[in-house]
Amino acid sequence: MSDDRPVLLFGETYHHPNILYRTGFLVPDPVVVVDRGGSDTVLWASALEEGRARKEASVGEVRSTVELDIPAPRAGGNEYDGWAALVVAVCKEHGLSAVDVDAEFPTVLADHLRHNDVDVRPRTDIYQQRRRIKTPQEIEWITASENAGMAALQKAIDVIAAAEIRDGLLMHEGRTLTSADLIFTVENHLLENGCSTVDSICCGGPESADPHRTMSEVIRAGLPIVLDIYPFDKQTRYWGDMTRTVVRGTPPPEVMRMWDAVLEAQQAGLDTVRPGANGRDVHHACCEVFKRHGYGSLGKGYRDIESDARFIHGTGHGLGLEIHEFPRVSEADVVLEVGDVVTVEPGLYDPRLGGIRIEDLVVVTETGCRNLTTLPKTFRLD
């Protein structure tokens, strides 16, 4: 916090990671949090959630919104009028004339607070430094999600490895193998292990040249299949993230050349990760490898290299209660610190042949980094 201004948070915690981070309370309905720092944190919950909050929330005090004697937020025709009355009443109860809010705080509630003489200052860095440096417990939770994801990813790889090749397509259990088959295999295994995800990428052939395309119409023999899995644990809500690219059947020489370049680039990126290193240096280490292999990237100094296959995104990102969080490993000027958990995931994408991406999740340590993604990097499944 800055200038001794308390932080005011509002929202449910399934989709508002700052509130979950500060309270440890997983709740589907909005709560209000007043954070003055340290243990001086008050969570306001409805009568429905008050009892559970007292048992589960990691805050200094839990109070019930019943104390405020205002209409239930959903009692009127406009739900946000009710929530506005709640946050105004909370500020009056605490004697707050100025608060900091995060970027997810609803504008309509901020307007109501200002109308009631509460100065509202939005900030984009609330808890950013604290959340980026992971505790040993957080690293355990992330590792558990990563392990579940690797096991699920291996299941999909096993299906591809066992597939037959017929007329240039992969066949599974007597019919054409589809992206939907692979996604079901992955996500079913995640659910069996207490995890879920918002999506999975199991995309092959030219379609995989779009890095975030989740599915292709068919799974072709001899062309790369990108498997990007990002699970979160349904209890802790911490994420994992990993990508492997595989091929079943004989790939064209250009695809093998792309694979060799991506594998080398990823290792160069991993070798650059250490405390004090700039994330930009990690990114450029990957770009330099691609440059030596004749492939262009988006960054200045690399974008003029003409090639069919190109590196068209950043090298990585932070991860924790969100799948993408600070710090970014890209052209951004960010110095890595011990306790950062980041991905290293360079890739090459050719619209004719498809994409190749390899992604590991690492923890920045005193001497370099520790790789949480131990799944082998095997391309050909012949």
Q: Could you say which overall geometry the principal axes of the C-alpha atoms support?
A: elongated
Largest sheet: 4 strands, mixed
Q: State the distance separating the first and last CA atoms.
A: 56 Å
**Overall average residue pLDDT:** 96
Structural class: alpha+beta
The number of distinct helices, counting runs of at least 4 residues, comes to 9
What is the rounded Rg?
24 Å
Residue share in β-strands: 15-25%
Residue share in helix: 25-40%
Unreliably modeled segments: none
* Strands ordered across the widest β-sheet: 1-2-3-4
- Beta strands, count: 23
Question: How would you describe this structure to a colleague?
Answer:
- The chain is built from nine helices and 23 strands.
- The chain has helices at 17-23, 47-56, 79-94, 107-115, 128-132, 136-162, 179-192, 253-272, 279-292, and strands at 7-11, 31-35, 41-45, 61-64, 98-101, 119-122, 164-166, 169-172, 175-176, 195-196, 200-204, 225-229, 232-233, 242-246, 296-297, 310-311, 316-318, 325-329, 341-344, 347-350, 354-357, 360-364, 369-371.
- Strands 1-2-3-4 form a four-stranded mixed beta sheet, with helices on both faces.
- The radius of gyration is 24 Å and the shape is elongated.
- The N and C termini lie far apart (56 Å).
- The relative contact order is 0.11.
- The model has no long low-confidence stretch (mean pLDDT 96).
